[in-house]
Amino acid sequence: MKKKYYVNLGSMEISQIKYDNNHEFTIYATDEEIRMLRQRFDGMHTADREAYWRAHVPLRPYHNDQSNDEYDTGITEAYRMIYELGDKGTKQHIDDIGILKDNHM
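Structure for Hydrolase, as requested:
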């Protein structure tokens, strides 16, 4: 059974309770879909942390870094999943920012 959730991609927050600024996106998802979205967020967090440490190694250029590629892939997959599960306003917002335009469903 799908439930209503509020998602803030910046803070990687998923909540059934709307408060402060946690409602960047509104989605309707099953428990399994929420687990999958949480896994994507966790992967993004790990890749971001690895990119931070890579930034302190001056001999390794940004454009040749697997952790940056993993973060970029993770955020695109998260946006795609949020789009698929999102309400009309969520889909419109994602369409407006154009994040999925090159690989839209």
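The chain has one domain: 3-103.
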